[in-house]
Design goal:
heterodimer; A: alpha+beta; Rossmann fold; Phosphatase 2c, domain 1; Heat Shock Protein 90; 3 domains; 5-stranded parallel sheet; 40% helix; elongated; B: alpha/beta; Transcription Regulator spoIIAA; 6-stranded mixed sheet; 6 strands; globular
Chain lengths: 569, 104
């Protein structure tokens, strides 16, 4: 590659067997400031060219050994992609001879005797053309390198996306899916995983837009999904979390139409939430098709306050199948631009005799319909089958992860001593421990109320001996809490002990709360006789309604409550 | 745990906003929000959008407000309560004493 010479210094090769002509030409060129190389015949011209790579070649047409035409062809071959302007030197003026020069691969010709002005103009003009072509080649190569780089990056990115978003974590007889090879860059995402309770959780999403922006949203969606499913979060929590993530990161106008499904193979139920995807089809054993239409806005549109993550609960018998899809199937077009549409889809279901072939038939039908038209690569189809779970199907990994990553079986005793009564509120601390149990997280409000009631009773009536009937008098509330404040600051003896114990059960877990105090106790029977209109006396009744069991032990200074939660709450 | 309140321009309507935990620790603020007004509002709105939890002392405080506002003639509505909070209000049959508005 000729190094970047001074723009003005153009190297010109002059080949002419007539030495006088050659010397004259060389003199003119030197005077015009060019660097000149010379050759006396065609062979020498080719040799000098290959050694020196001049910018422009001036060839006499008729030379010994190798004539100008043959030399021109060889030089052009040596030059390859590089543009080396070749100008023929000729004393002929008839049109045929001049045309012959150009036909032989020459770019132009110069007539003898030489006119220095025209010579200079032509040299400059061809040099500009050569520079332009060189720039073009450089840019072409650069674009080619960039493109190669880009394709390589895209291949790697696609592998990453495929690993994350194509539901590769579930290999189950309950799930079949098809995502077209370009689905990721079309904005389609599918994630699926088994919950600690053994349910199959799946989300099919379709981001608005195409390409990289659409694919980027798939990353937080997938990591949130897998992280939360593994830890045993409820479907509505996962939806709300994904919604708030997408809402905060996606620009307005970019969102994710999605359906989320949780299959419970023990209870033969399915929970389904559809925000913006085409209606899911539920294929019943009697051949009927039920549609589960979108009743929510897509993910990433509403703030979490307005977002509704309440899924529908539907029973499914063994052998029944649920179908989800993005709009790729409905909008698949044939060569005439006609869409596949709902009717064809319904017909496919109606004609089906073998439910286990429906999935393949659907895909075949759509692909056949699309035929050779371009958009045959935009399909996402998911089939979920309700069937009993084999023991072997339970993913052992997820069980291990479960016990490591969530608080399941544990107990805690917390005792509050007199000097802490006035300054310390145990509720936030205890609640934060309870909320480490995913199954309890949905019940934080209830748990707060229960523990707050039990602790308040133990402290105020048990330890401090306050009588809540004070509250019935005018300004009683103030007096009551004034007394409470004074007493907590001066009290020397007493305690409140809170025991929390949690254990897992087949379909959820149970929390036992035992609150004991140093007081003399009370009788539940007396307590519950209070009038409804009193300002106080509601606490234990609340606890009774909120918990599964409530009992008073000892002399009435120990209260035990159990609260059960269920995976499907 | 904060209680803030805002009266309408003519003073006929008072909105009380309770954030965080609604329990005895806010009882003075809660009472102060309506007892210190120069004229008694006709209508009370309790905004529980950001009320996280509620216990029985909060129920007592609601009844105090109700008696202050005229007992059976009181016009008090509770809006934007979370499902947890609504459940506790429902267990105590408070929907018979207060207007509990549906969200939004």
């Amino acid at each position: 590659m000729g190094s970047r010479k001074d723009e003005r210094l153009i190297t010109v090769l002059v080949a002419d067997d007539t030495s006088t002509d050659r010397l004259i030409l060389e003199a003119i060129l030197r005077k015009q400031g060019h660097r000149v190389l010379s050759a006396e015949d065609g062979e020498q011209a080719v040799a000098v060219y290959s050694a020196e790579r001049p910018d422009i070649v001036l060839l006499d047409a008729l030379m010994p050994k190798l004539d100008g035409f043959a030399a021109a062809r060889q030089i052009k071959t040596l030059a390859g992609e590089e543009l080396v302007p070749i100008l023929f030197l000729t004393s002929l003026t008839d049109a045929d001879s001049l045309v012959k020069c150009l036909d032989a691969g020459g770019d132009d010709f110069l007539s003898k005797p030489y006119n220095p002005v025209i010579l200079q103009a032509k040299i400059r003009s061809f040099f500009r053309m050569r520079a332009m072509q060189r720039t073009m080649l450089e840019q072409r190569d650069q674009i080619a390198r960039h493109n190669e780089h880009f394709l390589q990056e895209q291949t790697v990115a696609k592998q990453v996306f495929d690993n994350i978003t194509s539901g590769g974590q579930v290999d189950s007889k309950h799930l079949r899916y098809y995502l077209s090879p370009l689905a990721v860059f079309n904005g389609d995402v599918m994630v699926a995983s088994t919950t600690p309770a053994g349910n199959l959780m799946l989300l099919l999403g379709d981001f608005t837009g195409h390409g990289l922006p659409a694919a980027i949203g798939a990353m937080p969606l997938a990591t949130t999904f897998y992280g939360m499913v593994e830890k045993g979060f409820a479907m509505s929590d996962i939806l709300a979390e994904i919604n708030s993530k997408l809402k905060s990161i996606l620009p307005v106008g970019l969102f994710c139409c999605a359906s989320m499904v949780e299959m419970n193979f023990r209870k033969n139920t399915v929970r389904i939430w559809n925000g913006g995807l085409p209606a899911a089809y539920l294929h019943r054993n009697d051949g009927q098709v039920e549609q589960i239409k979108s009743s929510h806005l897509p993910l990433g549109v509403l703030s979490n306050k307005k977002f509704k993550s309440d899924p529908a609960l539907i029973s499914m018998a063994h052998g029944e199948r649920l179908y989800l899809w993005s709009d790729g199937i409905h909008e698949a077009r044939d060569l005439d631009g006609e869409m596949y549409g709902d009717d064809r889809l319904l017909a496919e279901f109606a004609n089906n005799q073998q439910p286990d072939e429906l999935f393949d038939d659907l895909l075949k039908s759509v692909k056949h319909f699309v035929g050779l038209s371009e958009k045959s690569d935009d399909l996402s189809l998911v089939e979920l089958l309700m069937a009993p779970v084999d023991i072997a199907d339970v993913n052992p990994d997820s069980q291990v992860v479960t016990t490591q990553s969530q608080l399941a079986e544990w107990g805690l005793t917390f005792e509050i001593k007199p000097s802490s009564f006035a300054i310390f509120d145990p509720l936030p601390l205890l609640l934060s421990v309870l909320l480490e149990v995913p199954g309890l997280r949905n019940h934080s409000g209830t748990l707060y109320t229960v523990i707050s009631e039990l602790y308040t009773n133990a402290l105020e009536h048990g330890v401090l001996g306050l009588d809540s009937s004070i509250k019935d008098a005018p300004d009683g509330f103030d007096r009551y809490y004034q007394l409470r404040r004074d007493k907590t600051q001066t009290i020397q003896n007493g305690f409140v002990k809170i025991d929390l114990a949690h254990k897992m059960q087949a379909d959820g877990g149970s929390l036992t709360i035992i609150v004991a105090d140093s007081g003399s106790g009370f009788s539940l029977a007396d307590y519950t006789q209070k009038n409804d209109k009193h300002y106080s006396g509601r606490g234990l009744k609340l606890v009774q309604s909120l918990c599964d069991t409530l009992e008073v032990r000892g002399d009435g200074n120990i209260v035990a409550a159990t609260f059960c939660w269920h995976t499907d709450d | 745990m904060t209680v803030t309140s805002m009266a309408s321009d003519d003073g006929s309507e008072l909105t009380i906003v309770i954030k965080g935990r609604f329990d005895f620790s806010v009882h003075q603020d809660f009472r102060g929000s309506y007892e210190t007004l120069s004229s008694k509002p006709e209508q009370f709105i309790l905004d529980m959008t950001d009320t996280a939890y509620l216990d029985s002392s909060a129920l007592g405080m609601l009844l105090l407000l109700r008696d202050y506002a005229g007992g059976d003639a009181a016009k008090i509505s509770i809006k934007n309560a979370s499902s947890d909070v609504k459940r506790i209000l429902a267990i105590s049959n408070f929907e018979q004493l207060f207007t509990i508005e549906n969200n939004e």
